[in-house]
Each structure stands twice: as C-alpha cells, then as structure tokens.
Amino acid sequence: MGFIVAIILGGFVGWLAARLLGRDEGVLMSIVIGIIGSFLGGLVSRLFTGADNAILAFSWVGLFWSFIGALILVGLMNMMQRPHHNI
C-alpha cells in the first residue's frame, strides 16, 4: 500500500513542480520527477537538517522536501534543454 501512495504523491509533487516551472509533462514523467525529486530532496534535507526527512512514510515535512527536490530536478531539466545563445 505504501508503494501506491508513493506513486500517487510522487506524481502529484512532480506534476506540481513541473507546472510551476513552465513544463507540461505527462503522468508517467510526473511520477518519475516526483520519485527522483524525493531522493534529491532527501539529500538536500540532510544538508540543511542533518536528517533525511523526504523518505518518511508520509509526513508534511517529507512532502515539502520531496517538492523541493522535484523543483531542483525540473530546474536542472529546464537548464539542460534551453538553447544557449552566444553573443
């Protein structure tokens, strides 16, 4: 049951992060962004708090760090796909 909740929350977090940063991803990609963002959020959480708060079963703190990780991931995706103009 926890796996299904992780997929649903990962999809929501990934979708929300992608929409806020101007991307329109599909359902599967939103889930992938949310799950990878959760791991990335765990790393960022460890840097700031000393604990991995993103990989908890369910908590608002874990959801927050997962969202932060998803935002970082989508931001990196945006940076890699934007054309660079040399002047």
Features:
87 residues, flat, mainly alpha
Strand content: under 5%
Through-space gap between termini = 54 Å
Q: Into how many domains do the coordinates divide?
A: 1
Counted beta strands: 0
Number of helices: 3
Helix proportion = over 70%
Oligomer: single chain
Estimated structural class? mainly alpha
Mean pLDDT: 83
What is the 3D shape?
Answer: flat
The major sheet is characterized as: none
Low-confidence stretches: none
Q: What string gives the helices and strands in order?
A: HHH
Gyration radius, in Å:
13 Å
Question: How would you explain this protein's 3D organization?
Answer:
The model has no long low-confidence stretch (mean pLDDT 83). The N and C termini lie far apart (54 Å). The longest helix has 23 residues, at 27-49. The radius of gyration is 13 Å and the shape is flat. It has one domain (2-81). With 87 residues, it is an all-alpha fold. It has helices at 2-20, 27-49, 60-81. α2 packs across α3 (60-81).
